[in-house]
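**Protein record**
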Amino acid sequence: MGKELKLCSGAEAVHKFQRAGWTVVRQKGSHVMLTKHGYQWTLSIPQHSELGPGLLRKLIRQAGLTVEEFNDL
C-alpha cells in the first residue's frame, strides 16, 4: 500500500503543492484552484480543516507526485 499518507488541512495542501511548483490561479468559494505549466489538470483544493484520504490521494496522483514526495514537502 506504500507509505502512510499524512492527512492535512486544505491550506497545508495548497502550501505543499506550491512547493512542488503549482501556482494558485483563483479561489472560488471555499476551493483554491492551482495550475502547473505542462499539466492538463487544475487542482481544486477545498479549504477544509482536514482533507479526506481519498481526495488527497486523488490530488497527489493528478499532481504527478507520490505519497512519499507529498509527505516530504
Residues 43 and 58 are 10 Å apart (CA to CA).
